[in-house]
Amino acid sequence: GIPLPEKVFYQYPHELSGGMKQRIIIAIALSCDPALVIADEPTTALDVTIQAQIIDLFSKLIEHVQSAFLLITHDLGVVAQMCDSVAIMYAGNIVEEGPVRKIFHSPKHPYTEGLLQCIPKMNQKQKKLNAIPGTVPHPRNFPTGCRFYPRCQHAMKKCLSQQPGLIEIDDERFVACFRYFKNSDGEEE
């Protein structure tokens, strides 16, 4: 909620904290009882304490409001904490989709694998973080074929010329990678 709403009502936006502005925007968005709430980077540029409050607020809303929530974020910690399912995107394309627990426990797409290996872990003995080799392509100059192939350790010849579509690899789990197509040429049978 908003502490001291009577006081906040008369304040100008520049007098409010980032977290207070977020709460107000969330309240405005929910005031018309939407079927879908799209939250685009709701915790970005907030300090850790305010981030935790916003995450807690969203968690309570998800339980009590009859709206679907679509969360757009680069923060995988927020995804792990708040989401049931996730779609991982690279260069504008969904490369893996499914239940958060399955994807975080056993990623299938090479980008998802690399992304999760970049996260520091408390029990990790190695001090150096892993990095995905190469650079993200410029949006005006995407490679033909799979957009991740220049950085992929598993790239096949087919990846140079064709973009793999999402295929179901198990219950509620989809991946866009020719490694998971049924024959060695990356073709679905």
Number of domains: 2
Parts with pLDDT < 50 across at least 5 consecutive residues: none
Element-level helix/strand string: HHEHEHEEHHEE
Mean pLDDT: 88
Shape: elongated
**Content-based structural category:** alpha+beta
**How much helix is in the residues?**
25-40%
Walk across the major sheet and give the strand order: 3-4-6-5
Number of strands: 6
Determine Rg (CA atoms, Å).
Answer: 20 Å
**Span between N and C termini?**
54 Å
Question: In oligomeric terms, what are we looking at?
Answer: single chain
Query: How much β-strand is present in the residues?
Result: 15-25%
What summary fits the major beta sheet? Answer: 4 strands, antiparallel
Alpha plus pi helix count: 6
GO molecular function, one term: ATP binding
Domain Oligopeptide/dipeptide ABC transporter C-terminal: 95-159
Organism: marine sediment metagenome
Subcellular location: Membrane
Structure, explained:
Pfam families: ABC_tran, oligo_HPY. One of its GO terms (biological process) is peptide transport. By secondary structure, the protein is of the alpha+beta class. The protein has 2 domains: 1-83, 3-Layer(aba) Sandwich (Rossmann fold), CATH 3.40.50.300; 105-189, no CATH class. The protein is 30% helix and 16% strand. The chain contains 6 helices and 6 strands. A 4-stranded antiparallel beta sheet has the order 3-4-6-5. It has a two-stranded parallel sheet with strand order 1-2. A hairpin with a 2-residue loop joins β3 and β4. The longest helix is centred in the first third of the chain and has 17 residues, at 48-64. The chain starts with a helix and ends in a 14-residue tail after the last strand. The relative contact order is 0.10. The mean pLDDT is 88.
